[in-house]
Amino acid sequence: MHALRYLTLVWPGLPWLWLRGSLSGLVLALAFAVSLDVAILASFIWPGLVEFHFTLGLWTAVGAIWLVSTVSAAAAFPPAIAVPRRDEADALFASARDAYLARDWVQAETRLQDLLDIAPTDGEAQLLHASLLRRTGRTVEARKALEKLARSDSGSPWRHEIAVELDRLAAPPDSRAAEEPTVLPLRDESGRRGSQSAAA
Fold first, then answer.
1. Would you say 108 and 96 are in contact if contact means Cβ atoms under 8 Å apart?
2. In this structure, are residues 180 and 167 in contact, taking their beta carbons and an 8 Å threshold?
3. What are φ and ψ of residue 197, in 5° steps?
4. Rounded to an integer, what distance in angstroms lies between the CA atom of residue 55 and that of residue 43?
5. Burial state string for 114-153 with b = 16 or more CB within 10 A and e = fewer than 16
6. What number does CATH give the domain 86-198?
7. Is residue 152 within 8 Å of residue 122, measured between CB atoms?
8. Model pLDDT, residue 194
9. What's the pLDDT at 98?
10. pLDDT by residue for the chain (200 residues), tens digit each?
11. Which of 24, 50, 96, 127 has CB atoms 3.0–4.6 Å from 111's, for a disulfide?
């Protein structure tokens, strides 16, 4: 399976689009597709439509785009998303949660960033991070984080909590001040977090 990841190098932009969901990867992949389509149309479908020099320039551009993007993608190939050890991730989450409950926003955000670096698909950590952003007044960042989480697979178990957070962001600022923390479950032995954690 690891070797199959390298097949994405065949199409420019695909390593970043397929393995990381990158918007710039999508733009590069679409730009290459359009330039290749135009070159094929000019060469084989309507060969008399444009001069030979223009067609040759199109194929040269297609080849250059492919070569440069493949070499650059091979040099900085996106690594696979690491699967962290559960106890390491749980320890970071517990530390972040404790700092959050103690209203130590800097420590909580530092721990959450560390956790999201090793487990970028941890939906609960993303939800707590969005809640932290809301609590610290960074409402635009919080809304973007919640909307991104809502669109991802890791956000599906947290749809209700995401909706509650978005409602809190939509509420007038003076009504947000008196709200109480919401308690969420921690992971139990089956892999889901059991016990308690705060997300408000």
1. yes
2. no
3. -150, 155
4. 6
5. bbbebbeebbbbbbbbbbbbbbeeeeeebbebbeebbeee
6. 1.25.40.10
7. no
8. 46
9. 94
10. 466 677 788 888 888 777 777 788 888 899 899 999 999 998 988 888 888 888 999 999 999 989 988 888 877 776 555 555 577 888 999 999 999 999 999 999 999 999 988 888 888 999 999 999 999 989 999 999 999 988 888 888 889 999 999 998 888 766 555 454 544 545 554 445 544 444 54
11. 96
Both tokens of 123, joined, read 């939906």
Instruction: Dump the DSSP string for the chain.
Output: -TGGGGGGGGSTTHHHHHHH--HHHHHHHHHHHHHHHHHHIIIIISTTTS-HHHHHHHHHHHHHHHHHHHHHHHHTPPPPPP---HHHHHHHHHHHHHHHHTT-HHHHHHHHHHHHHH-TT-HHHHHHHHHHHHHTT-HHHHHHHHHHHHHSGGGGGGHHHHHHHHHHHHS-HHHHTTPPPPEEPPB-TTSSB-S-EE--
Q: What angle do CA 142, 140, 84 make, to 5 degrees?
A: 30
Q: Which two tokens stand for residue 47?
A: 């060969």
